[in-house]
Amino acid sequence: MKIGIFDSGLGGLIIAHSLINKLPEYDYLYLGDTARVPYGNRSQETIYQFTEEAVRFMFDHDCELVIIACNTASAEALRQIQQQYLPAHFPDRKVLGVLIPAAEEAAAKTKNKRIGVLATVSTVNSKAFVREVEKLLPGSQVFQQASPLLVPLVENDALKWAEPILREYLSPLLQKNIDTLILGCTHYPVLKKQIEEIVGRGINVISQDEVVPAKLGDYLSRHREIDSKLTKRSRREFFVTDKTEGVASLGTKLFGENIELQLAHLNQRS
Ligand code: DGL
Question: Active site annotated at which positions (predicted)?
Fold first, then answer.
């Protein structure tokens, strides 16, 4: 059985790469819903439906455990998947998100309990980061900033235009005197250096590609019953729901290595 990594598109390949680097022995299946990306401006109902279809595809392809690398799907669909879909359809499988690991890291790092979040519009509207951080660190204050222009900048290889936009998004958070900033979107690790230069050394920047692999390793060592079902032949498969030359070259760029993409049909059972 494999570890599945799901994202609305290709940004999740950044986290997939760091997971595979940290835990190389496992077999992985990546699924990016490139036909329907972005999820970040969609309704909760639509995000849930897309995520459920993706999770079912991954379970049908022998994933024991699925990591939802997409923050928007983690924020808008994960709870319903865990509390309703899994017990009804796949009671033995597990689905985890990327939001709680980032919230835990932020709660551990902050000194003044003032935490900023950069994320998509849907993630911000869900207030999922606010809930999770406040649960972990009562009395903390979480300030969110929706940053809808950042994903298109990364996808269009347009980082040279990012700086003024980043300054615009970061300025309200800096005015709140935050000491910790969560990059709450799959694509933002690519912008981490630029963000660190703008916010300065005094602010902890939490990037999920640096946090999630260790948390997964820890989870698997605590859940031997899951780990024992996972095959360890270092196999990797990469699926997308729409395959073009642009998708292939962006995929290779974000993963940092050549990858072969297969086409996934989410509504058909294998
Ligand atoms: N994967 C999404 C996230 O992490 C960003 C791209 C999108 O909007 O679908 O929130």
Answer: 70 (proton donor/acceptor), 185 (proton donor/acceptor)
List 96, 146, 185, 190, catalytic entry: 185
Known binding site: residues? 7-8, 39-40, 71-72, 186-187
| Secondary structure, 3-state, the chain | CEEEEEECCCCHHHHHHHHHHHCCCCCEEEEECCCCCCCCCCCHHHHHHHHHHHHHHHHHCCEEEEEECCHHHHHHCHHHHHHHHHHHHCCCCEEEECHHHHHHHHHHHCCCCEEEEEECHHHHHHCHHHHHHHHHCCCCEEEEEECCCHHHHHHCCCHHHHHHHHHHHHHHHHHCCCCEEEEECCCHHHHHHHHHHHHCCCCEEEEHHHHHHHHHHHHHHHCHHHHCCCCCCCCEEEEECCCCHHHHHHHHHHHCCCCCEEECCCCCCC
Domains, in order of start, for the chain:
2-97+210-263 (3.40.50.1860), 100-208 (3.40.50.1860)
Express each pLDDT in 214-252 by its tens digit: 999 999 999 999 999 999 999 999 999 999 999 999 999
> Which pTM value belongs to this model?
0.95
